[in-house]
């Protein structure tokens, strides 16, 4: 299980670089809308394990808990194209005793053009009962260590957040 190291600073944002695969694209050579989820979730799983030494499967095995997706908000800003290199960023922007909101966004390789933004709201559950429960204390420690500092972005309207991310990109 995750053990918080008080001497260590944990990065709030994860980043991966990947190429858009032909088999994931539609006839117009755009990344299929449903495939964004695969790219995001795979990138986050890899980076969380690498940066934080944590895998969600640990929750399932050790605590008999997990997160389940409750809601998605997604915006397709510009298409990701077949064989294009892209950057995928993710970060925890909110958490409470039983809920998390993770923000994902994709840009071109130079981080100049925003391609997509996704907010995923997840609920923490007991896998034995399927009911929502409070985060385990070690999970709360992890969430506190990796949350994006500052205000809870879940209070900002999604479209305003898209504009903020666009303006933050390299010009």
Write structural notes for this entry:
This is Acyl-CoA thioesterase. InterPro entries: HotDog_dom_sf. The protein is α+β, with helices and mostly antiparallel strands. Helix content is 27%, strand content 31%. The chain is built from 4 helices and 5 strands, in the order βααββββαα. The protein has a 5-stranded antiparallel sheet with strand order 1-3-4-5-2, with helices on both faces. It is globular and about 45 Å long. The termini are far apart. The relative contact order is 0.20. The model has no long low-confidence stretch (mean pLDDT 94).
Keywords:
171 residues; alpha+beta; 5-stranded antiparallel β-sheet; 5 strands; 27% helix; HotDog_dom_sf; Acyl-CoA thioesterase
Strand order of the largest sheet: 1-3-4-5-2
- Class based on secondary structure composition and strand pairing: alpha+beta
Q: Helicity range of the residues? A: 25-40%
For the largest beta-sheet, the strand count, sense and barrel status come to: 5 strands, antiparallel
| Principal-axis shape | globular
What number is the mean pLDDT? 94
**Beta-strand residue percentage:** 25-35%
Termini separation comes to 41 Å
DSSP summary, beta strand count: 5
The helix-strand sequence is: EHHEEEEHH
Low-confidence stretches are none
Cα Rg: 16 Å
Instruction: Give the count of helical stretches.
Output: 4
InterPro entries: HotDog_dom_sf
Protein name: Acyl-CoA thioesterase
Organism: Fibrella aquatilis
């Amino acid at each position: 299980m995750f053990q918080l190291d008080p001497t260590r600073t944990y990065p709030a944002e994860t980043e991966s670089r990947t190429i858009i695969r032909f088999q994931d694209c539609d006839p117009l050579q755009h990344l299929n809308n449903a495939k964004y989820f695969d790219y995001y979730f795979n990138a986050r799983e890899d980076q969380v394990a690498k940066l934080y030494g944590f895998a969600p499967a640990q929750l399932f095995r050790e605590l008999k808990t997990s997160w389940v997706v409750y809601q998605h908000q997604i915006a397709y800003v510009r298409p990701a194209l077949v064989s294009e290199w892209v950057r995928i960023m993710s970060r925890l922007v909110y958490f409470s005793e039983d809920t998390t909101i993770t923000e994902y966004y994709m840009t071109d390789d130079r981080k100049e053009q925003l391609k997509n933004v996704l907010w995923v709201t997840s609920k923490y559950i007991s896998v034995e009962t399927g009911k929502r429960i409070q985060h385990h204390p070690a999970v709360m420690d992890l969430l506190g260590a990796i949350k994006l500092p500052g205000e809870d972005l879940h209070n900002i309207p999604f479209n305003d957040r898209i504009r903020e991310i666009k303006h933050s990109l390299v010009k």
